[in-house]
Design brief:
heterodimer; A: alpha/beta; Rossmann fold; 2 domains; 23 helices; 12 strands; elongated; B: alpha/beta; four-stranded parallel β-sheet; 14 helices; about 45% helix
Chain lengths: ~500, ~270
């Protein structure tokens, strides 16, 4: 096994194929297409139903947007308040500039406990920093305990969705992975395992229970960090997260600095919009909130609570007035589920732990636009706007995509011009003056007349266009230009007054 | 704002005599490739009592540049637009995405040009620019435009008219009032067709995959014609339908609304 590629925001990232290249392969995978269409369709319908129940949904979105903006506007103050309150509650707060620093802190904390393994509650942030790889390099095993993350980890795979990381797998594939891999890292799956979801869940439960009861250290992310209380909040659906957060003696939470909410009462809004947007549930099944370690003679929960606050490019995103709204994201993945591009190309095409529309705006901001894949991501959208419509924190993803396209194009200026750059320059010159456009119309209508003539067989459509227009005609017919442009018709008929048709 | 003087004629055609200066923004793509659409807009608006002009200085909204990241290259088109369409009561375009670009992106282009006069011009012109169905329903106040079109039709709401402009059910109301029409609902109508401007070229495979689903949904309705209010999207879906020899055709909303008992399906008298 070669292992998954480096898809995080780390120094190990070497660049992957462009979105176009990866998407082409995904589009040709019928199993993937079916799995994705089925899963996104189901979640999309569930979300639409429960969002439709709330008369004040738009007000909730506006409130969520406003709270996040306030949080980000004075991020430094809220983070310092969080640190002070969490520290007062007995937690140890660490600050990490980038992935490498965060990984070094976590590895050292695990080693200080003398542990050789950790259990993990689902956390995209630790995938962003490729923590498992760092732990592994230090001889520490990291066990993913979220069911879908377990499937991904056992399958030597990487997540393709923010909320349901194994969305690209169907249950027959999951059964095969469990049968093949579980025994290598712990309790094997029963030999008579079927692809019945209950049996699969049972196999995972038995496999994971061993690890929960043995582990001394847990690693988590957090959905929210509450500044005025110093509390962390984890929102999950399975209860496996709750096991991680309460059983081991030491809990290390790696938290992106954009997760901070100013006040405890802000949580109310997000506990309404998050489950409805993500899983299509009215209320989230397992919401864990903790403020420092447990106290008293019988400690319930971890004795040592560490919190690593991580930047890893976020302050750079914050510095861009047109890009910073992406930091409002609460990782609900509603934008993935409604995206017609994601539905057909899957998460892996985006070459990042953050796929879909939000990934297309977040990844190039976090990683920069030096690599082919990161430069291709802002263009991986038809700008249909469905993502903006469902976003619970109202991130205008289409406008942000256009902003990032501009950045990519601007960065490419100055060298030897590409065919596209030359074409754009020529078109720009044409549209500066109507006489130039009129000339284009005349050329087009002359071509149109010839093609429509009896000599050319009276063509109505073109089946093959020369390069570079072949990208169009590969699967689509192109129209034959009309025999007369509108402009010429208007002039010839005196605005249609001399024309029988009007 | 505008003086309305509605007269319902015996034929059922609502004649809205509006004393306003209306300019047609044909859009560059329609001008060169789909002239029947702006011609239909002219016929339709005149039938409803509007005086329609076509300022010949017009070129393009600049969207192809803006949405591909070429802001500098969009500046000449935006300058041209602001200068050409200043001073009209209303500018009407048969394209949701071009109108969306004018209303939502011209200010970014003007800001890029670092030209405060252009910025002011753009802000002044933008609110006077309407997509056809908006102009008919909101400004003229008509839904029955006196059209006759005895065909089975299904309607695809293009993304920018739906989400950027929020035209809502205006086009459907207009279609529903057409005499003789058999209007069938399109399943998953609000899903993007996959055109997306240069997306159709840069991500051709994904664009085609999306378009095929749209084409299939349209064919499955049993309709004879797929109608929308953007010829760019229709070129994409229509190109797929034609390549598949599906037997289904596409048409712009304006051409259906302009059709009467005395015109053929192609709008000819």
């Amino acid at each position: 096994m070669t292992g998954p590629p480096h898809v995080g925001v780390t120094g190990a990232f070497l660049g992957l194929p462009t979105f176009q290249t990866a998407a082409k392969a995904a589009l040709e995978d019928p199993v993937l297409r079916r799995n994705l269409a089925h899963a996104t369709g189901t979640i999309r319908d569930k979300r639409a139903a429960v969002v439709g129940e709330l008369a004040n949904w738009e007000e909730l979105r506006l409130a969520a947007e406003a709270i996040k903006d306030v949080a980000l506007h004075r991020l430094d103050e809220h983070l310092e308040a969080f640190e002070a309150n969490a520290t007062a509650a007995g937690a140890v707060v660490h600050w990490a500039r980038d992935a490498e620093e965060a990984n070094r802190i976590v590895v050292a904390l695990v080693q200080a406990e003398g542990a050789s393994e950790v259990v993990k509650v689902k956390s995209i942030l630790t995938q962003e920093i490729e923590l498992n790889e760092a732990l592994s390099a230090a001889g520490i095993d990291a066990w993913e305990t979220d069911l879908a993350e377990l499937i991904v980890q056992l399958g030597d795979d990487w997540p393709s969705h923010i909320l349901v990381p194994a969305i690209h797998r169907n249950r027959a594939e999951v059964r095969e992975i469990f049968l093949r891999e579980m025994g290598k890292v712990g309790r094997p799956a029963p030999a008579d395992l079927s692809d019945d979801p209950c049996r699969l869940a049972e196999a995972a439960r038995l496999h994971l229970r061993e690890k929960f009861l043995r582990a001394e250290v847990a690693v988590s992310g957090a959905n929210f960090a509450i500044a005025d209380t110093g509390s962390l909040v984890v929102v999950e659906s399975e209860g496996n997260g709750r096991m991680c957060l309460t059983l081991p003696d030491t809990l290390i939470s790696v938290v992106g600095i954009e997760k901070v909410l100013p006040s405890w009462r802000d949580l109310e809004v997000f506990l309404q919009v998050l489950p409805r947007s993500s899983t299509g549930e009215r209320e989230n099944p397992y919401t864990s909130i903790w403020t420092g370690p447990g106290a008293g003679p019988v400690v319930d929960g971890p004795r040592n609570v560490h919190i690593v606050l991580l930047d890893n490019g976020r302050t750079r995103v914050l510095a861009d007035p047109k890009g910073r709204d992406a930091l409002r994201c609460i990782r609900c993945s509603a934008c993935l589920n409604v995206c017609p591009v994601y539905e057909r190309t899957g998460g892996h095409s985006y070459g990042s732990v953050y796929p879909g529309p939000i990934g297309a705006v977040l990844t190039p901001q976090l990683r920069g636009t030096a690599s082919d894949v990161d430069r291709s991501l802002p263009f991986a959208s038809s700008l249909c706007g469905a993502c903006f419509d469902v976003c619970p924190v109202r991130i205008d993803i289409p406008s942000m995509l256009v902003h990032l396209r501009t950045r990519v194009v601007d960065e490419s200026r100055g060298g030897v011009p590409s065919v596209e750059q030359l074409a754009m320059k020529a078109a720009s010159w044409t549209f500066a003056d109507h006489r130039r456009l009129g000339a284009v119309g005349k050329v087009a209508s002359t071509v149109g007349k010839v093609l429509r003539s009896k000599l050319m067989g009276g063509k109505q459509v073109l089946r093959q266009l020369p390069w570079p227009a072949g990208a169009w005609s590969h699967a689509r017919d192109a129209p034959v230009p009309p025999a007369e442009s509108f402009r010429d018709w208007w002039q010839r008929t005196d605005g249609g007054q001399q024309d029988g048709a009007s | 704002m505008f003086a309305h003087d509605e007269v319902v004629e015996p034929g059922g055609v609502q004649d809205v005599r509006v004393s306003m200066r209306v300019a047609l923004f044909a859009t560059c793509f329609n001008d060169v490739m789909w002239p029947e659409t702006p011609k239909a807009v002219v016929r339709l608006l005149r039938r409803l009592g509007c005086e329609v002009g076509f300022p010949v200085e017009q070129t393009c909204c600049g969207q192809i540049f803006t949405n591909t990241g070429y802001l500098d290259e969009a500046i000449p088109a935006v300058r041209n637009f602001a200068a050409t369409f200043a001073g009209y009561d209303a500018v009407v375009a048969p394209s949701g995405s071009c109108v969306g670009s004018v209303r939502h992106q011209h200010r970014d282009v003007a800001a890029r040009a670092v030209d405060t006069r252009l910025q002011a011009e753009v802000e002044k012109v933008a609110p006077t620019v309407y997509e056809l169905s908006e102009f008919l329903v909101d400004i003229l106040g008509v839904t029955d435009v006196g059209a006759y079109f005895p065909h089975r039709v299904t309607y695809h709401p293009t993304c920018h008219s739906l989400r950027m402009l929020g035209v809502g059910d205006r086009p459907l109301k207009l279609l529903a009032a057409v005499r003789g029409i058999d209007l069938i609902e399109l399943p998953d109508a609000e899903q993007c067709c996959g055109f997306g401007g240069t997306f159709a070229m840069k991500n051709a495979d994904t664009s085609v995959a999306m378009g095929l689903d749209k084409a299939r949904a349209a064919c499955d309705t049993g309709a004879e014609i797929l109608v929308a209010s953007d010829n760019s999207c229709l070129s994409h879906i229509g190109g797929l339908l034609s390549r598949q020899r599906s037997g289904m055709r596409v048409m712009h909303l304006a051409e259906i609304l302009a059709a009467t008992a005395t015109t053929s399906i192609d709008g000819a008298p």
